[in-house]
Amino acid sequence: MIKHALAISALCGAIALPASSFAQSTLGRGTMGMSQPASMTAGEVKKVDREAGKVTIQHGYIESLDMPGMTMVYTAKDKALLGPVKAGDKVKFMVVNEGGKLVLTDIQPAK
Question: How many domains does the chain contain in total?
Answer without folding.
Answer: 2
